[in-house]
């Protein structure tokens, strides 16, 4: 992808902002890349359209090309879709014994993943786990789970010949209660393709145990098929999450994106090999980089953006030293504070601000107040922001009303801006006239 995009991007103009043409050209290539990574066509189409709206008009960071910038935007959008809500890897296993139902096609890695997850629950979360195989069609499958259990030190429900899947599930449930287990995992039988007998069987098991988690295990290399499987299982059984296996292979992981887009269910883990510890919580950044196949470019753009921010900060400092500190500056500072986790911590770090930090704390400042202050500044006109000294009663009234607040709150904000401007000036003088020159003498 890198090379192909490179060619296209070389032809792109290097203007300050991404034009619609720039974006379209780059996204055509991105769409192909998505399809090559096994993302299903409708998902790729929707996704590209969303990004197109988002990217057009964004400014281009200096040291990267518009095309690289688009890739970064695409990457971030991918991460957002992939991440979804909730904490990755967190399973609902409270209220013991908690049943976990493992479903999926044959060969997708259900049995292996059952073992990996059991080990993880035991080692990381200190849970007592019982595993049971419901694969009555292949005796070898039951043996496989027994062997895994021994290997990782997790109990396995003894095999009883001639039982149905539902009977085994009931026995597992009883045994889990009696034996004081925290979790019991049911490894169901798979088929090479979805078939209704299998679905019915899994439905019956589900109704017997009422699982806390129903995890669909999907082969990450299967791409398109994976999406159909996910849709079908979700519709019939109702899944709570997905585990993508074989992500150690050279598949591009496009299935992950399709599955998120189609089912909306979180991807909880990825399987990275055959060994029992080759299971990791799902990291959207990694998979996004893999789908695009250009992690290096994303890093480059991020770096460039950091540099720009540093340059901006330096320019600002030069102005502050001259006592120029208007509402735009204050707004930027407030936003920065929001980003960096609150007023108190920031002021504590700034020289000469210790006292103010204490006052801030006393006044009960928190993020809500930062947001309210930003809202006030937002309801000022451009001229007012640049020259806050022009604010008279009528303007104040309008601004406060615009932000849905009292004039007294605006007055506090103005006072703060004046104090900051003052202090900046003092600090500037100190730096210029004072210490350095003194030292040189
Ligand atoms: P099941 O039929 O769904 O129970 O699938 P199995 O758990 O028996 O796995 C089928 C094959 O895939 C076995 O050889 C596993 O070792 C292998 N396998 C499972 N997960 C992974 C994985 O994440 N990476 C790799 N490389 N192989 C895996
Ligand atoms: Mg199996």
Percent range for β-strand residues: 5-15%
At the fourth level of CATH, the homologous superfamily of the largest domain is P-loop containing nucleotide triphosphate hydrolases
The small molecules bound here are: guanosine-5'-diphosphate, magnesium ion
What is the assembly state of the chains in this entry?
single chain
CATH topology name of the largest domain: Rossmann fold
Low-confidence stretches: 1-15, 348-352, 432-441
Order of strands side by side in the largest beta sheet?
Answer: 3-2-4-1-5-6-7-8
CATH class of the largest domain: Alpha Beta
Radius of gyration (CA) equals 29 Å
Task: Report a brief summary of the structure.
The chain is α/β, with parallel strands linked by helices and 441 residues long.
Structure explained in plain terms:
The protein is of the alpha/beta class and 441 residues long. The protein has 3 domains: 2-83, Four Helix Bundle (Hemerythrin (Met), subunit A), CATH 1.20.120; 98-282, Rossmann fold (3-Layer(aba) Sandwich), CATH 3.40.50; 322-440, Signal recognition particle, SRP54 subunit, M-domain (434 Repressor (Amino-terminal Domain), Orthogonal Bundle). The protein has 19 helices and 8 strands. An 8-stranded mixed beta sheet has the order 3-2-4-1-5-6-7-8, with helices on both faces. Helix 9 links the parallel strand 5 and strand 6 (241-245). The longest helix is centred in the last third of the chain and has 34 residues, at 407-440. The protein starts with a helix and ends with a helix. Guanosine-5'-diphosphate is lined by residues 104, 106-112, 190, 245-246, 248-249, 271-274, 278. The site of magnesium ion (MG) has 4 residues, from helix 5. Pfam families: SRP54, SRP54_N, SRP_SPB. It catalyses: GTP + H2O = GDP + phosphate + H(+). GTP binds at residues 104-111, 187-191, 245-248. GO terms for molecular function: 7S RNA binding; GTP binding; GTPase activity.
